[in-house]
Structures are given as C-alpha cells and as structure tokens.
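tokens incoming
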C-alpha cells in the first residue's frame, strides 16, 4: 500500500459520504432525524436540528477537517501495514 494514495482514497471517501449524508438531511430532514435516532437507540435528535437555514460554512469546515483527519489515518494505516509486511508494498 502506498501511504499517500491510501490517505487520498480514504479522505475522498469520507468527504463523499459526509456530503451524501448532508444531502439526505437537507432533502428529508424528518426521515433523517428518525433514522439517526434509530441508529442511536431511540435518542431524540430533533432538538439539534437548526431552526434557521443550513449553514454551508459549517459543512465546508467539517468536510475539510474530516478529510484531513481521514487522509492522516489512511496514510498512517498504509505506512504501518507496509511495516508489518516487512516493508513490501
């Protein structure tokens, strides 16, 4: 595994799925809140929904941070995996 390529692949995957999640929340807010509540054992996330419009600055900030974090994790994972495989790629 190549650390840079693996980091890029994971970062792009995370940002893509975060974007899809955002689109789902914007298109179907009630169903989205119910789905997330079901995942977290019935917790009520409706109170966390913003009353005003969606904040795109928050989206881009979160996407950037999650992308950087995912890149670091992917690159580190690939680097460690190659070390455990005796340096073979």
């Amino acid at each position: 595994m190549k650390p840079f390529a693996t980091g890029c692949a994971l970062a792009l995957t995370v940002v893509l799925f975060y974007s899809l999640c955002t689109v789902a929340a914007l298109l179907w807010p009630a169903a989205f809140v119910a789905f997330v509540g079901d995942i977290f054992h019935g917790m009520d996330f409706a109170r966390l929904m913003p009353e005003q419009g969606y904040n795109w600055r928050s989206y881009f900030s979160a996407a950037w941070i999650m992308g950087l974090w995912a890149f670091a994790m992917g690159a580190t994972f690939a680097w460690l995996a190659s070390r455990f495989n005796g340096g073979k790629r």
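note: DSSP finds three helices and no strands in the chain.
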